[in-house]
Amino acid sequence: MTRTVDQASANLGGKAVDYSAALDLISTTDPQSHITYANQSFCDVAGYSEEELVGNPHNLVRHGDMPKKAFEQLWQYVQAGKSWMGNC
Q: Which residues have CB under 8 Å from 19's CB, separation 6+?
């Protein structure tokens, strides 16, 4: 798949999902990694409703290509009560 500035892709649940790179995919978690909120764009790309996501571990929607270092930083921030933002 060719990636352009206007598109990105995710491989969630074993299937590729194309979406606009302009979308804001927003989710929040508690310090134990359980999802507490997901906006509609996040839900659409993940393929789950907010009700299905909330309360579940965030790795439910983990993309296999995300580097381990990014997760280390993400959880350091979350466990310190800080926000973390990643972009692709």
A: 7, 8, 9, 10, 25, 41, 44, 45
Which residue from 69, 76, 72, 47 is spatially nearest to 60, judged by alpha carbons? 47
CB of 84 within 8 A of CB of 77?
Answer: yes
Scanning the structure block, which residue is given the tokens 């929607």? 61
- What are the sequence ranges of the domains in the chain? 25-79
Bridging pattern class, strands 7-12 and 27-29: unpaired
What is the model's pTM?
0.68
pLDDT at residue 8 above 50?
A: no
Give me the CATH topology for the region 25-79.
Answer: Beta-Lactamase (3.30.450)
Give the span between the Cα atoms of 29 and 18, in whole angstroms: 24
Task: Determine the Cα–Cα distance for residues 59 and 32; give it in Å rounded to an integer.
Answer: 11
